[in-house]
Write a structure and sequence with these properties.
Length: about 140
Amino acid sequence: MKLFLLFVFLTSCALRAEDIAIIAHPGVKASDISADDVKLVFLGSKTALSDGSPVTPVLAKDGSIHDAFLKTYVGKSDAALRNHYKSLVFTGKGSMPKTLDSDAAIAAYVAGNKGAIGYVAAGANTGGAKKLNIK
């Protein structure tokens, strides 16, 4: 019975895509982004959105939103994503993304840096960054 209650508690606390907001610098023309493009951008494989707006990903250092984002959109664990970026750096095909400590720091960075794209909790203050709709 205790195991069942623990399972119910953990699954009821799990974050979903609706709990995550993808945000971009206000100069990014796009208002929508596909889930596939989110994955490609945050894996460093895509550097511009479908409207031509250049983007540079910003990651959270850790936390439940970070873990939910990786699981929902990227399909990698934090360690696997870091290894992925290390291999891009090693081969000269990319660089390590900026990582920040909080939703507020991510929102402020994204709002103030042309082309920046990141993610925060859905209810977080975006500080001037625009929310992108996931299509």
